[in-house]
Amino acid sequence: MAKSTVEKIQTILGVEPDGIWGPKSQGALNAQIGATGGGGNPKLKKIQTLLAVEPDGFWGSKSQRALNNELGGGGGSGGGIKAKASSFADPEDVRRFRECKATGKTDLQCFAVGDNGIGKFGADTARTTTPMVAVHPSDAIAKWGSMIGAAHRPVRVTVGSKKVIAFVEDQLGKAGRIDLNPAAAKELGLDPPFLVDCVWEWL
Known about the structure:
single chain; alpha/beta; Barwin-like endoglucanases; 2 domains; 6-stranded mixed β-barrel; 9 helices; globular
């Protein structure tokens, strides 16, 4: 029987080629990403070739998105996570950040009072038409081994009787939370700022 693409990738990474992508596989990939030199990583080039993206040996959002697509969105949710849903990248959030920056403070200082509307992976999180979320690194690591492993992955957030499917495009600093951008908040009928109970899950 011919090996699946995931099994071939696992073989390149030196982990058991069982076709099931979990923390061990993601951890092995992360190790190769971390070991990438100036000329690119030869193992990553092989994986990129399998994923039909440019085999430059440097792992970025295009490579991760291609892997996510190959995995079919993540291989199951593993159950819902109870959390508090809060707002981010809404107009008031962005305004506070810009006002803070205008005083000469650093990005880190200004993130304490607002948001710049640019996600960790470069997305425009302030958009009102594309639902996006920010998750805590501990939730990303528990499921995918790293934040980059969680990049662009879909999640379902449920607040009361309403649900929204959004994509991980940023990270937040408080555990037990998930941040919703304006588009995700709109679909759930929430007006920023808010802090409400929710259940969310990986898809």
